[in-house]
Amino acid sequence: MDEKKIIAVVGASGAQGGGVCRTVLKDVGGGFTVRAITRNAGSDKAKELEKLGAEVVEADIDDVESLKRAFQGAHGAFCVTFFWEHMSPEKELAGAQHMADAAKDAGVRHVIWSTLEDTRKWVPLDDNRMPTLLGKYKVPHFDAKGEADRLFSGSGVPTSCLLTSFYWENFIYFGMGPRRGEDGNLYLTLPIGDRKLPGIASEDIGKCAYAIFRNGGEFTGRTVGIAGGHLTGRRMAASLSKALGQEIRYNDVSPEAYRKLGFPGAEDLGNMFQFNRDFESVCCGARSLEFSRALNPSLQTFDEWLAVNGRRIPIEKALRRAAGE
Ligand SMILES: NC(=O)c1ccc[n+]([C@@H]2O[C@H](COP(=O)([O-])OP(=O)(O)OC[C@H]3O[C@@H](n4cnc5c(N)ncnc54)[C@H](OP(=O)(O)O)[C@@H]3O)[C@@H](O)[C@H]2O)c1
Question: Which letter, b or e, does each residue of 50-75 get, where b requires 16 or more Cβ atoms within 10 Å of its Cβ?
Fold first, then answer.
């Protein structure tokens, strides 16, 4: 008889949820199994998860009834929102509310809510060191997640709020990798001065989350943060240089210049990096490396991540406005 506890995973075909699914399914004797939630059970990624042993079900976080069905009978739920699909904090809040409501309706025992800081606690809207965006946010994709923490705690479902970190995969997929400047040199452009940025291999988020599910009660009602490294821009550039075999210089631009780069989300990310720069101790302090490693002993450092993934990092075209600052 199969008495494994089901963990329902939102975003199962993505970076965070995918890591949760693979970690749980790999631990065959661990007493847990996966219900992978996707909008398309026929996709290649969904089929891959099925092959690994997941039950695959369709649901959409915009549709609370679909989530109620998907969470039914689950012991745990890993909940994440998808800001960059729509760039609307209101939509993120609505999705979080749906997941909290569905978890309550289904009697889920433990939710992990993938969150980030509501930066307005440190930088109120009338603080002009960074612009207010979309009328009431400083860092929209952080603030809405932080604001949504209370939706989960208010639902009465035992919840762990998991503060994640900057994925190093952003250097591969998000256009944040090294770019050739107009002088022909390669630059890693980040507006963080000489401060440290907490970062992580996205797969490690799932490994840490699984440890939090396994330890259950110890982590419910708590906010915990994870990172695989706290690294300056100069240090990341040095590691990238070594891994890519080409000199990559750190291009320390101002947050103002970064916000003006013109790509979708540049203002939001400019404010995010400024928050990391100006509140380094808050951001790094909330994401202890020792704690993260205790949860996940195979936690990757940036250099270890680069040894495996470095060759996938593209050299992007010049960011003219940054280089011309
Ligand atoms: N990039 C970073 O450095 C970073 C760091 C910390 C936090 N974050 C946050 O991480 C979140 C995204 O997580 P991720 O990176 O794991 O996502 P992801 O890799 O982009 O994957 C998300 C998956 O979720 C599914 N999905 C999208 N919209 C959905 C919806 N309405 N209902 C149900 N499923 C949906 C999609 O799968 P299907 O098509 O199969 O449904 C997609 O494959 C964002 O909110 C971002 O702010 C990012």
Answer: eeeebebbebbbebbebbbbbbbebb
Alpha-carbon Rg for the chain, nearest whole angstrom, is 20
End-to-end Cα distance, the chain: 65
Average pLDDT by stretches of 10, the chain with 325 residues: 89 98 98 98 98 98 98 98 98 98 98 98 97 98 98 97 98 94 95 98 98 94 98 98 96 98 96 98 98 98 97 75 41
Measured in Å, residue 312 CA sits from the centre of ligand 1 at 21
Query: Helix or strand or coil: residue 262?
Result: coil
| Whether residue 11 has its Cβ less than 6 Å from ligand 1 | yes
What residue ranges in 171-211 does DSSP mark as E strands?
A: 179-180, 186-189, 196-200
Angle, CA of 33, 81 and 303, to the nearest 5°: 75
The model scores a pTM over 0.90: yes
d(CA 58, ligand 1 centre) in Å: 15
* Cα dihedral across residues 80, 82, 83, 86: positive or negative: negative
Tell me the best of 82, 92, 174 to mutate to test the pocket of ligand 1, counting ligand atoms within 8 Å of each CB and taking the most. 82
DSSP characters over 146-180: HHHHHHHHHHTS-EEEEE--EETTHHHHSS-S-EE
